[in-house]
Specification:
The protein has 203 residues and is mostly helical. The protein is 79% helix and 0% strand. Helix 3 (50-74) runs antiparallel to helix 4 (79-99).
Length: 203
C-alpha cells in the first residue's frame, strides 16, 4: 500500500516544485479550486453543459492537489492551510452535487433532488461533523477521533459517484442517480459505524 501511495505523492511534489515560483500562496491555490468548482456548478446548472462542467470540476480537483504540493515545496505547510484545504474539499463536493439539482435527472422512487440533498447531508457533512464534534466535546481523544474510519469514506464516496456519472454520460443518467442512492445508503452505514465506535468504551 505504501508503494502505491508514493507514486502519486511524488507526482504531486514534482508539480508543486514546478509551480512554487508562481506568485500564489498555497491558500490562494485552495481558493482557486473553489472558484473553479463554482464555475463548473454554474455551467451545469445554468447552461446545462455537462461536458464542460465536468472538465471544470476536474480542474478544481487538480487545483486541490496543487495547494498542498506547493505548500510542501515552499515549506509553508501549516495547520491553518490544512484546515482551509479540508473546508474547500467539502465546498467543492457540495457544489458538485448541488449543481445536479438543476440538471434534468430521471426520477427513481422520488425526486432526484431529494437523493442529492440526502447525499450532501449524509455523505459530505455528517461523517466529518461526527468526528469533529466528538473531539470538540471531549467524548473521545484526538487520536481516537482521527482514527475513526468507516465503510464509505471520502475517496470511496467520490469514486462511486464518478463511476456512476461516467456510466450516466455513456449510457443513461439513471446510473448516476442509482450511484447517488447507493452512496446515501453506504454513507448512512459509515455514520452508524462511527457513532458505534464513539459510544464504545475505551478498553
Amino acid at each position: 500500500m505504501l508503494k502505491q501511495a508514493e507514486g502519486p505523492r511524488k507526482i504531486q511534489d514534482t508539480i508543486g516544485e514546478a509551480l512554487a515560483a508562481v506568485p500564489l500562496s498555497p491558500n490562494q491555490w485552495t481558493l482557486l479550486s473553489v472558484i473553479a468548482a463554482l464555475a463548473a456548478g454554474a455551467v451545469i446548472a445554468v447552461r446545462q453543459d455537462l461536458g464542460l462542467g465536468i472538465i471544470l470540476f476536474a480542474i478544481a480537483a487538480l487545483l486541490d492537489l496543487v495547494d498542498g504540493a506547493v505548500a510542501r515545496a515552499r515549506r509553508e505547510t501549516s495547520a491553518l492551510g490544512g484546515f482551509l484545504d479540508g473546508v474547500a474539499d467539502r465546498f467543492v463536493e457540495a457544489i458538485f452535487l448541488f449543481s445536479f439539482m438543476f440538471y434534468p435527472l430521471p426520477i427513481i422512487l422520488m425526486d432526484p433532488k431529494i437523493w442529492l440533498a440526502a447525499f450532501i447531508f449524509l455523505g459530505t457533512c455528517m461523517p466529518s461533523f461526527i468526528r469533529a464534534y466528538a473531539d470538540h466535546k471531549g467524548v473521545i481523544t484526538r487520536e481516537r477521533a482521527l482514527a475513526l474510519g468507516g465503510l464509505f469514506e471520502r475517496s470511496e464516496r467520490l469514486g462511486l459517484v464518478i463511476l456512476g456519472l461516467a456510466a450516466g454520460m455513456l449510457l443513461s443518467m439513471q446510473f448516476f442517480v442509482y450511484a447517488v442512492i447507493l452512496a446515501c445508503a453506504l454513507s448512512l452505514v459509515t455514520i452508524i459505524q462511527r457513532l458505534a465506535a464513539i459510544a464504545q468504551p475505551k478498553v
